[in-house]
Amino acid sequence: MSNKLKMAGAVSALVIVLGAGAYFIFGNSASVHAENNEAATVAIVNGKEITRKDVNDVVETLPMQQNAPLEKIYPMVVDQLINDMLLETKIEETNIKTDPEVQERLDIAREQILRDIYIERYIKDEVNEATVKEAYKRLKEEGKSTEEVRARHILLESEEEAQKLISELEDGADFVALAKAHSTGPTGPQGGDLGYFTKDAMVPEFAEAAFKAEPGSFIKEPVKTQFGWHVIYVEDKRTQEIPPFDEVKKALRGQLNQRAMNQLVENLRKDAEIQKFTLEGEPAN
């Protein structure tokens, strides 16, 4: 059962389970790769063996697999492999493999696999250790640090409501309590806490006001944005230095991979003759 194609069911099921909330503690305490003894038997189903290599093949394809402690997900992987082997045996007793619907889906899957492998190889050629290090070098050259603000806000529908709460704050009211009681935004139940953010992470009007304010103070005038009127309290400011290369190389590689993918698609579209139509079949503008 070492064929990786036979692991598709296990991978899909495990991803669904992970997405539904069965999260694990990720860390570097254990590797997902077996250093030895890949032939070790982990289960026997109706006389058929499932090996340590089968487990490794599945885990290698899981999201964040490079940091997932194997001992945390091992029981679930083995159980899913057992389920898949039982299903595989049952399928062999039917004629479903020749079913037209199956063939149609296999054709669709084949085309997707071809696209995926082409893209993977293209990105591998475009993004390597040298290009990641060059990206880190540019990151350091463009800015040695990033300023961040931690703020709370109360989102309201009118300027009058915002001004009334500012008056209450001037009289000593508690900002967190006011946010919980009056904010119409999703952070209201958390006292309006927005956490730390960079200037470009917020709409311009909000960011401009928040970054001008002193830590430990609220802004004395309501701030209007496309979302409504804001009463803003700035808790803290900090400067984030650019982390060491080893801490950011994974994120940088992800950005470069996405950029390479975007560039590939852009080049393909640039050299193609494309006509677009509406749902009614009329030429689209």
Topology overview:
Layout: H1 8-19, E1 41-45, E2 48-51, H2 52-60, H3 70-92, H4 100-126, H5 129-142, E3 145-156, H6 159-170, H7 175-182, E4 193-198, H8 204-212, E5 217-218, E6 223-225, E7 228-241, H9 245-270
Antiparallel strand pairs: 1-2, 3-4, 3-7, 5-7, 6-7
Helix pairs in contact: 1-3, 2-3, 5-9
Structural class: alpha+beta
**Helix-strand string:** HEEHHHHEHHEHEEEH
Low-confidence stretches: 15-35
CATH class of the domain at 144-241: Alpha Beta
Count of helical stretches = 9
Q: Can you give the mean pLDDT? A: 85
Please report which band the strand proportion falls in: under 5%, 5-15%, 15-25%, 25-35%, 35-45% or over 45%: 15-25%
- Report on the biggest sheet: 5 strands, antiparallel
Estimated helix fraction: 40-55%
Can you count the beta strands? Answer: 7
CATH topology of the domain at 144-241: Chitinase A, domain 3
Overall, the morphology is: elongated
Rounded radius of gyration (Å): 27 Å
Straight-line N-to-C gap: 53 Å
Instruction: Please state the second-level CATH architecture of the domain at 144-241.
Output: Roll
How would you characterize the overall build of this protein?
- With 285 residues, the chain is an alpha+beta fold.
- Among the domains are: 4-93, no CATH class; 144-241, Chitinase A, domain 3 (Roll), CATH 3.10.50.
- Helix content is 49%, strand content 16%.
- It is built from 9 helices and 7 strands; from the N terminus they run αββααααβααβαβββα.
- It has helices at residues 8-19, 52-60, 70-92, 100-126, 129-142, 159-170, 175-182, 204-212, 245-270, and strands at 41-45, 48-51, 145-156, 193-198, 217-218, 223-225, 228-241.
- Strands 3, 4, 5, 6 and 7 form a 5-stranded antiparallel beta sheet that branches.
- A hairpin with a 2-residue loop joins strand 1 and strand 2.
- Helix 5 packs across helix 9 (245-270).
- The longest helix has 27 residues, at 100-126.
- The radius of gyration is 27 Å and the shape is elongated.
